[in-house]
Amino acid sequence: MLAIAYTGIRAEGYSGLQSFDCTTASLLNLILYIVPLIAVVMGTISFSSDKASLDLLISQPVGRGEVVAGKILGLFCSIVAATILGFLFAGMVISPIAGPDGSMSYFVLALLTEILALIFLVKCEMLCNLVSEYLGSRLT
To answer: What is the helix, strand, coil percentage profile of the chain, to 5?
Structure first.
């Protein structure tokens, strides 16, 4: 994120670290591609796990909803930790140079990034569930 903050608006003739507003605008397109991709890949790997581990998990006295919620929460926490560390590190470097102007838009972008990740995790779970039900009905 720091590299984007430094080179994000170089095409307009600016160089060096810019304000939080410019960094937010530069990061927006990257976040719209990378965060959903990471959420879908992590969700697909988690929700389409092998049958042996799923049978063992279902045999425990835990409901299916709890298993799904736990998987979504665990994946979401890992994505939140990674993105918050990235935003925090970049923000700490930009803040002394740019000052507090525009830091609220940067914070809102970080919050919306987490919401985007959660939306795509839930969509991935729903899609994996539909595909497994479809394939299960086709195989029997």
So the answer is: 85, 0, 15
